[in-house]
Amino acid sequence: MNNKGKFIVFEGIDGSGKSTISKMLHEKINNEITKSYYTFEPTDSPIGSVIRNILNRRIKTDEKTIASLFLADRLDHLQNESNGILNFLNDGINVVSDRYYYSSYAYHVPHIPLDKVIEMNTLCAELLRPDIVFYLDVPVSESLKRISKNRNFNDFYETEFKITQARENYLRAIEKEGKKDNVIIINANNDIEAIFNEIWNHTLDLFKKKSTANNVYKK
Ligand code: ADP
Ligand code: TYD
Question: Most Cβ neighbours (<10 Å): which of 10, 26, 169, 181?
Fold first, then answer.
């Protein structure tokens, strides 16, 4: 039976437009298709709040601990009894998430080999693979321009070096794993309307599709 919600993920380097476009898509699905729930990682759970304190440098710890915290945050994001993604999907509600495990593949790889990060995240992939991942691709120079317009570069990962590394790691991970997760690379160095139209067309196709074996949501 095809009554599960769809799980739609946005990925991309900081400033690529994930938050802008993912909220637009969530709204349009809600208005024109069926119910949608919007969410993001790092979450606003207690685990996510530890992570935010690391990102803003209030808490200092090592990179392997950071990667493990993101994994813990994601597992809770999936399984939390009150607002876990799996519950929404099982209730037939679509979920749009700003970031999922490709963010781990992109940001933790300099410190842990890609295969190991993928292996750690099989804990999540075994519970839920996305129905589609939109990877918003922008050159690092554009990302830096957009970030600097809005805020200071004080987040842990928001340095030119780290963003460059993240973009390379994203592309490498997509080449290796992208087919399994239906990753679509979107040229996000474009105006918002053009980006959104392309994403909306893919979304309409997705909703025409029947559920696949991937979409068995275990709890
Ligand atoms: P992310 O969530 O990936 O960090 P945001 O959606 O927060 O990115 O966008 C970062 C900034 O860039 C915001 O000020 C946003 O308004 C702007 N922005 C987003 N998409 C575009 C675009 N296609 N062209 C120009 N500016 C954009
Ligand atoms: P986010 O709040 O999405 O930042 P932005 O809106 O600038 O894209 O994410 C905060 C940071 O967390 C971002 O620099 C990427 C990093 N991150 C990881 O390092 N690992 C992860 O698994 C996730 C989900 C995010």
Answer: 10
